[in-house]
Amino acid sequence: MNYPTFPPEFLWGVSTSAFQIEGATAEAGRGPSIWDTFTATDGKIARGEDAKVAADHYHRYSEDIALMAELGVGAYRMSTAWPRIQPTGTGKPNSDGLAFYDKLIDDVCAAGIAPAVTLYHWDTPQALEDDGGWLNRDTAHHFAEYAAILGERFADRVKLWIPLNEPMVMSIYGYGIGEYAPGRFLLLDALPTAHHQNLAHGLATQALRAAGAESIGTANNHSPIWPADEDDKTEAAKTWLDALLNRTFADPVLLGTYPEQIHPHLPEGFADDLSTIHQPLDFYGVNYYEPQGVAAPGEGNPLPFELRPVEGYPMTTNDSPIVPQGLRELLVSFQDRYREHLPPVYITENGCSFADAPAADGQVHDPERIDFLDGHLRALREAMNAGVDVRGYFVWSLLDNFEWSKGYAPRFGLVHVDYETQRRTPKDSFAWYRKLVRHE
Ligand SMILES: O=C(O)[C@H](O)[C@@H](O)[C@H](O)[C@H](O)CO
Q: Are 273 and 195 in contact (CB under 8 A)?
């Protein structure tokens, strides 16, 4: 099988997040997070599922590290659970929490794999949410304190640091439309949470630098915005949605500015924080899954846009259109828009879910996932040929895991997880990725 070719020093990895795989939510001093609260709230999660056990990674991380060593990946993007380190989000760190990540990071390093640590993948300590969460500017400063604790403890071993995972999703899905924790429905009044997360990114980057961190970047999710029709009003809606979903999180970090449209929705004095947010970065991490369709707002719609599905493409079981060329388009547009302000890029997440299950032969055959990865890697290669400086790629995800409000039905892993027995079964895509990563 001919694979797309990449430079020998290209960094191959896999990604996960703490809340989606660890389980052990009440063990070793971990405090409750907004997602523990959300999963315990009726009607919020499909089939009433929760992540108390998830993939039980907290107890089975050695087995999972052995799987990554088998894959031959050069890096593992994981997240640390803020409520495991600071159960209420402030104050003295929980030594058992630090000890867990000490052991995990040591064993990842011992397997010859570079740890890439995301400090925050949406599991805000509930105590901070009770004080307003990301609506409260103080949370950004608490986050910087948390970052300093991690930097001090792990900067000697961690290769790549990512303060926040997808602040856009936290703001829009968590505070804007209530689909994710903490479940607020504030629409555009959620935008102060975007600013406070951007501020947290800047303050945490300063704290990590002070602790001697090697390489710091982002993991922002981005989508090319595709107009549903040629109407001028749709073009205006496209510009607005691009500002909201993409530029509100890229511009302040890369340029030290916010798109004009967003200014009226930001907290007073936001401009004074831009120099803190606009920290020099070593890389820009992009999570790509799909383009986003848009049209002009209909009658009575309070928003300056209307979301539209992208049609005419094969779909995943998570209702995502499979559009590899969207990745090339996105990266080339970023190169054009940010030019010398865009540091080297890592694809920090890309992946797909299908209803994978062991077949009669005990194997898990997932040809659609192999096609998905192959297609997106070819599109990535094209973007690199067009001049985008891409240094690495992380598959979402190593393991099947808890897919937020959709629970366990969407399976994104290269490794199948039987949630009854916690048995791990590498899928065909695991073998495919192994060959690619090992240049076999
Ligand atoms: O991008 C995200 O939404 C998150 O970073 C992951 O936690 C998701 O599980 C994954 O993307 C699949 O939807």
A: yes
